[in-house]
Amino acid sequence: MKKLIMVAVIAALAASAVIGVAYAGNNLNGNGAPSGPHYNLNLIGVPKDKTADLTESNGHVIFVSLNGNTKILLYPGNFTVLDANGTDGTASFQLPNPDPTNSGYTLYSVYARFLGKPGGWGNITSGFTDGNTTWFSTNSYVEVRSTGKSTFTNVSKDLLYVYVNGTRYPLFTNNLYQYFWNYDNNGCKLVQLRFYQVSTNVN
């Protein structure tokens, strides 16, 4: 009987440890995002193309077309905007490897929300180019800017991984691939992305 109780206690402790890691980001504020330090990235939709050279702008902003498609090329490293002008169709952003061992537990989490005038909508899909073939994830972050308060959503599963043919690829799994986010914007003036040092379980 004592052995059975001990086994049950050990199992319970193991389960609580797993839950503690998986739900570390569940201490949320009223806006839907965790509390604590974070990196901000704003995707700003503009009606006209930018003509200034915004390469290595050192900011937290990427300008994208208000109505159109922008591919944001992704590179491993510390959080940095490498090319802020996406109105020409391409921008670039640097962020850490989210899950080096493909464990399904991220090293950090990303939360997003759409702001601006109601009615705009968009979707962001991760992907990679493998040689001459481009693959898009079967998961996408899709949101419509409705009326009322806009809250953050945990989009780590959508933006930090690429799902192809039932296989999960964390960003930067293969250093020969070019990873990206494909942002299809339909009138949304602002998307806020926040990166927090908390783990998300995507399994």
What structural keywords apply?
7-stranded mixed β-sheet; 5-stranded mixed β-sheet; globular; 2 helices; mainly beta; 203 residues
Largest pleated sheet: 7 strands, mixed
Q: What ranges have pLDDT less than 50 throughout 5 or more consecutive residues?
A: 1-25
Proportion in β-strands: 35-45%
Tally of discrete structural domains: 1
The value of Rg in angstroms is: 19 Å
Assembly state here? single chain
Shape descriptor: globular
* SSE pattern, N- to C-terminal: HEEEEEEEEEEHEEEE
Average per-residue pLDDT, rounded, comes to 82
Provide the structure class.
Answer: mainly beta
Estimated helix fraction: 10-25%
Description:
This protein is mainly β and 203 residues long. The protein has one domain. It is built from 2 helices and 14 strands; from the N terminus they run H-E-E-E-E-E-E-E-E-E-E-H-E-E-E-E. It has helices spanning 2-22, 156-159; strands at 38-46, 61-65, 67-76, 80-83, 90-95, 109-115, 121-130, 133-136, 141-144, 153-154, 161-164, 167-170, 178-186, 190-196. Strands 3, 4, 5, 7, 8, 9 and 13 form a 7-stranded mixed sheet that branches. Strands 2-1-14-6-10 form a 5-stranded mixed sheet. It has a two-stranded antiparallel ribbon with strand order 11-12. A hairpin with a 2-residue loop joins strand 11 and strand 12 (167-170). The model is unreliable at 1-25 (pLDDT under 50).
